[in-house]
Design brief:
The protein has about 190 residues and is mainly α. The chain has a domain of about 130 residues: Orthogonal Bundle (Tetracycline Repressor, domain 2), CATH 1.10.357. It contains 9 helices and no strands. Helix 1 packs across helix 4.
Length: about 190
């Protein structure tokens, strides 16, 4: 049910994902959802997002670790996300963006799960940029730009059913980051 919930939330969002939708997608019995999630929908959503964001963060960290620069990691991330979009007929992208946008101006406790995901993803890029030799303030600011570019590219790609905006945005960000890291004075050790 948690896996089914994660998929439905990523593609449909919070409001359009009902408990019975999750039961049907998971091929579970109706009563089992209330047994496993006695606190209701928010418990299911939190656990589903925790699963999907854990996977996404592990993937992001692995891509950064395997890349020779942050710029390369951005391009590889864009290529991977384009594959996900194509494989899911543009239904899936960021595991929390759809939910986060819906509940951003509420006091829904699920919003903490969304914030934590973005904070941790941000930290992955901050650490990568620090590894590339940037100063801490520059790394934090550029990591924010990287996430904004990826999320914006995903939104444009999903709404146009075309991966070109995502790929182009990630390539442009990659070039900008590589230029910045190559022309910026390296921190002394």
């Amino acid at each position: 049910m948690i896996r089914a919930g994660a998929e439905l939330l990523a593609s449909n969002g919070y409001a359009a994902t009902g408990m019975l939708d999750v039961v049907a997608a998971a091929k579970a019995s109706r009563g089992s959802i209330y047994f496993h999630f006695p606190d209701g929908k928010d418990q299911l959503v939190s656990e589903s997002l925790t699963l999907s964001t854990g996977r996404a963060l592990a993937r992001a960290a692995a891509v950064v670790e395997a890349s020779s620069s942050t710029g390369e990691a951005i391009e590889r991330t864009g290529e991977y996300l384009a594959e996900v979009l194509n494989a899911t007929d543009f239904r899936m992208g960021c595991p929390v963006a759809t939910v986060a946008l819906e509940i951003a101006n509420t006091d829904n406790p699920v919003l903490d799960t969304c914030r934590t995901f973005f904070d941790q993803w941000h930290s992955i890029y901050v650490n990568s940029l620090l590894r590339d030799g940037l100063a801490a303030d520059d790394a934090k600011n550029l990591a924010t730009m990287i996430l904004s570019v990826i999320e914006g590219g995903l939104m444009l790609a999903r709404t146009s059913s075309d991966t070109t905006p995502l790929i182009d945005a990630c390539r442009s960000a990659s070039g900008l980051i590589d230029h910045f890291t190559n022309s910026s004075p390296q921190e002394s050790s």
